């Protein structure tokens, strides 16, 4: 492979097929910032199949709007639809980059769903992967984190696209060096915009980019580091295989969304397998996209194995001991989403894990956590409710609220006068589904 050769249509089609994508699957969306990477991607994708370009103006730089004007002018004669999205509202004073990334993904994914598109293409490439590996190495990441960015990653939110298919983020260029994308733009006579933040030395990624440009060791190249990330990802898949075996032996799943872990059997597994499974269970129960930090996970695992374990919280989950042997992992009430309005005949997704539906003959209400007040009301008014569930589990159960009172809690088998309400546990994916990104890139 020539590291500075333009990407051919055949090569791009092969990369897309490797991700399970074909032109016959319908249009794809491409996140376009105007840089050489995203301009190369959108041009290649437009020759491959139907595309929609999506650009986000974060409102952080006054010149950003003019840059997107240029992007639109480049795409219009090519017949590529271009949607401009805006991050409105107040901006955080700290960790602005992370907040901007999260906002960008939310806006991109929301527009994909509005357009009925199930595939969002991102232009991350081999150099980005190498930089990500170095950054995570500096943070002390484990096998999972050192696997770098995933070629296929789940969406930030679990709401399906209109056609019922899950929305996924795809990175078809992850194996290609940036030089090939620059060469591709030149082959298309395509201009691009240089991002000034790439030269800002206050960002860690700028330092890693400079290090790769002048490596202190022979062989410390973007290609080698990207290969290392791939090796670590394969190692992670092997660990998942053995963690699934441990799960089959020691974990029981409840229809109410909590899990029970047999502590003694769990502790017989190697430490890395325990950590792997515990992380996946926390993500599954809490509806989280990203796994907990390794330090917090190791601390929780140590607490779980200690005599007199009283319970702990991590990643939106409550972990506690029952009957001296069973470890319960359930959703933490304090971390549940705020109550969400629901209209008659409407389906809403609450707390990243619950699909709720209200019949058309009901009146508008709210979906929220049952909580202590709701439970006490049920004990007073409800008949035949299931009181066997552990108390912390009950608190986070989805309930229908109307006029300040609970009117239905399907997971407890209880309904008041408003019987037309149903809830369903929506796992973001199976416990060992597609490897998520460890952090926002």
TrEMBL record:
Q: Does the keyword Iron apply?
A: no
InterPro entries recorded for this chain?
Rossmann-like_a/b/a_fold, TilS/TtcA_N, tRNA_Ile_lys_synt, tRNA_Ile_lys_synt_N
An MF annotation (GO) of this entry: tRNA(Ile)-lysidine synthase activity
Q: List all membrane-crossing ranges.
A: none
Q: Which UniProt keywords apply?
A: ATP-binding, Cytoplasm, Ligase, Nucleotide-binding, tRNA processing
Q: Which reaction is catalysed here?
A: cytidine(34) in tRNA(Ile2) + L-lysine + ATP = lysidine(34) in tRNA(Ile2) + AMP + diphosphate + H(+)
- Domain spans labelled tRNA(Ile)-lysidine/2-thiocytidine synthase N-terminal: 28-209
Where primarily located? cytoplasm
Write out the annotated subcellular location. Answer: Cytoplasm
One GO BP annotation of this record: tRNA modification
What name does this protein carry? tRNA(Ile)-lysidine synthase
